[in-house]
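User: Earlier you gave me the apo prediction for this protein. Now I'd like the version with flavin-adenine dinucleotide bound, so I can compare the two side by side. Same sequence as before, with the ligand SMILES added.
Assistant: Got it. Here's the input I'm using:
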Amino acid sequence: MAATYDALVIGAGPAGSAAAWGLARAGLRVALVDCHAFPRDKVCGDALIPDAIGALEVMGLRPAIDAESVSLRELRVYAPSGRFISLSGAFRCLTRVRLDHLLVDAAVRAGAHLIEGLTATVPLVSSGRVTGAVFTSAAEPVTIEAPFTLLAAGANATVMKAFGVGTTLKPNGVAGRRYFQVPSRLAAERRHLVIAYDRALCPGYGWIFPGPGDRFNVGVGFFSGRVRDAPSLHDLWRRFLSTFPPAAELVERSTALTGFQGAPLRTGLAGARLGRPGLLAIGESAAMTYPATGEGIGKAMESGLLAARLVGAALSSGRDGEPVHEAYESAFRSQFRPRYAAYATAQAWSSRPWLLDLLTWRASAGRFVRTELESLIAERGDPRRLFSVRGLVRAMFL
Ligand SMILES: Cc1cc2nc3c(=O)[nH]c(=O)nc-3n(C[C@H](O)[C@H](O)[C@H](O)COP(=O)(O)OP(=O)(O)OC[C@H]3O[C@@H](n4cnc5c(N)ncnc54)[C@H](O)[C@@H]3O)c2cc1C
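And here is the structure of the complex with flavin-adenine dinucleotide:
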């Protein structure tokens, strides 16, 4: 079986759905293909930080998201000492089953053709340019051709390798989560996000995120970059529950709704290319998840919207032979490089417990550290003001 479109999007997570929405809104014929049928789950912490909320706003999904998600105004970042910094911001939590379904639905309503149950295996290549992909299905192999293919298959190493955009196949992180039904009185006391850089998890982190219906998402992540003997995720999970009192208390007083499930993380643009002729890699297929916190929904959506804009402009002006992947890579990097650098520095700092303890102490003594962290999360200002050697010195006095 074969079909032809203006653009082919592989993967209907936040990156792929946002891209398909943008392409369809530009009047293009778009195939949005996923190996799963929706609604489908995705192992995640379910937190929406300001970049994700902004992208949802662009897609006109704020009313639906506001109606279904939990709104939170505080993020508590715990240092190894057990002290925490309380950061103000606008956050939301919504399960990925619902979020991703709303996103796919928006793409379909905009005119994208959703095709479920097809797994992309290899690209079609003609004269060095990607011209579509081959898919396997329960029935027969399917070929879809298009002048532009957008790869949005998440952290899937096999597909990144097959499409020639993964330079490192091993993910640089791993994270897992479990859902708990929390008694309503306890849930009311815990209406804030928690990220914990507990000493027992170093260089990793744990989280407690309150979701709709008092269903909390509790999890741990680990950045394996330079670590030789990384602990298993289950080991990390056990440590989190035995050494971090807010997690231990919550889990003890709540009912587990699911088992503990893990998934890879690809962060900091590491080990990935953003494209090649005819192909643009978006979201976690280009390792766009943030280091230090593992937040990636926002950048997945933003990269999808950016790629759609550039592909749409090239197609509408008949410049479909141009190296759009280069313009895309350079636009993405120039817009977000300082933010990735700041999150990478934050991750490096988080592997030094004494430094986190010091910064937490400074955050309670002055305003500078707290204000700069709030700006980083809200994607405002210059993140180097704090995340640099000079920033560290400033933090000691301001
Ligand atoms: C445990 C954990 C907690 C996290 N917590 C948060 C959080 O709280 N907030 C946050 O912002 N980020 C979080 N992240 C990161 C976030 O999950 C990712 O950044 C985000 O899902 C990336 O979106 P994506 O669209 O690029 O990929 P995905 O969401 O992974 O979507 C990829 C899609 O591609 C499909 N696919 C895969 N292979 C193929 C194929 N061969 N053919 C066809 N389809 C295919 C999949 O079925 C899937 O639907 C977390 C990650 C983990 C692992």
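For your comparison, keep in mind: The chain is about 40% helix and 25% strand.
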